[in-house]
Each structure stands twice: as structure tokens, then as C-alpha cells.
Design goal:
globular; about 70% helix; mainly alpha; about 180 residues
């Protein structure tokens, strides 16, 4: 396919048609929505530059996911300098699972996560959501609660593990993912 020229809408239409899937895919690897937005913008620019490498429109989503994956890994490296983020190996594993998971399964997972999150006390819900609420939110919570940011991050790790077990249990009980 040729590089899009001025006014060429093919790339934009393909991107918009697949944006929700690409966003969900990036969301599995990144800790906050601002990072996802940044990655999608960077991915779009890369797609624009490399549009001539796309052989056909049916191949857009797999091609786009590869670009988004590499942009997510790059973003995670930047984020690691200021806060805990999964290793590249862990992000690769998450990406592989996300690629194999269809949208119905993703919805089942989201519903299970929302249910499990509601089971937590309000303060713990706020802590789980803090990293996704903007930069510095965990530090602000630390100041408010009189705890160190490290202590809150450790608590956050335990809460995420607990949520993971809860989600897995709910999905298995519902007969969802294996």
C-alpha cells in the first residue's frame, strides 16, 4: 500500500475502526491512561510513516498491534525511571495473552475486575485506582495517610495480586477463560 498523502483517509479510517482494540491492547501493558494516549499517538505517527509496509487492509490490526507493542515497551522503559512498572519480559507475556484474548473474553475480564474491585473497602479501591488517576496520585495519598510511598506501592502490589486471584476465580466460576 502506498504512503498516505495529504487528504488520504485510508490510514485514519483503519486506525479509527481498530482504535478500541489497539487501546485495550495497550491498556493491558501500561499503568495509566495518559501513557496509553501517548503510545497511541506515537503508534499512529509510526503507522503513517510505515503505511507503505502494510500489504492489505485486512492485515492492519496485527500490524498495528506490533507497532503498539513496541511503543508500549518504550513507554514502560521511560516510566520505570520514575515508578515501578512491569519488566519488559512480563509486558511481553501480557501482550501475548492479550493478543490471544478475544473481545468477549476481555469484556468478561473487565466485568470480573469491576466486581472484585467493588468488594474492596473504599480506601483500597482508591489506592488501586490511584496510578491510573494521574501522575503523583500515590504520593499524594501517602502524604494524606502518613505512610511512605514505598509502603503504599507494596500494598498496591498485594492488592493487585488479590484482585488477580479474585478475577481468575470469578472468570473460572462463570466458565470463561481457561
Amino acid at each position: 500500500m502506498n504512503n498516505p498523502g495529504p487528504g488520504d483517509e485510508r490510514l485514519m479510517k483503519l486506525f479509527l475502526r481498530n482504535e478500541a482494540v489497539l487501546r485495550a491492547y495497550a491498556r493491558t501493558m501500561l499503568p495509566d491512561l495518559n501513557s496509553v494516549d501517548d503510545v497511541l499517538q506515537e503508534a499512529y505517527l509510526t503507522m503513517y510513516d510505515k503505511f507503505d509496509q502494510l500489504r492489505n487492509e485486512e492485515g492492519f490490526l496485527p500490524w498495528g498491534k506490533v507497532i503498539v507493542r513496541f511503543k508500549c515497551l518504550s513507554q514502560a522503559s521511560k516510566l520505570r525511571r520514575v515508578r515501578p512498572v512491569l519488566s519488559d519480559e512480563a509486558l511481553q507475556a501480557v501482550a501475548e495473552v492479550a493478543e490471544e484474548t478475544d473481545m468477549d473474553d476481555m469484556n468478561d475480564l473487565r466485568e470480573a475486575l469491576e466486581s472484585c474491585l467493588k468488594e474492596l473497602p473504599r480506601g483500597k479501591q482508591e489506592l488501586v485506582l490511584a496510578p491510573y488517576s494521574g501522575d503523583g496520585q500515590v504520593k499524594r495519598m501517602a502524604v494524606q495517610t502518613g505512610k511512605s510511598p514505598s509502603a503504599l506501592y507494596m500494598m498496591l502490589i498485594r492488592l493487585r495480586e488479590k484482585l488477580g486471584k479474585c478475577v481468575k476465580s470469578k472468570v473460572q466460576t462463570a466458565g470463561g477463560l481457561s
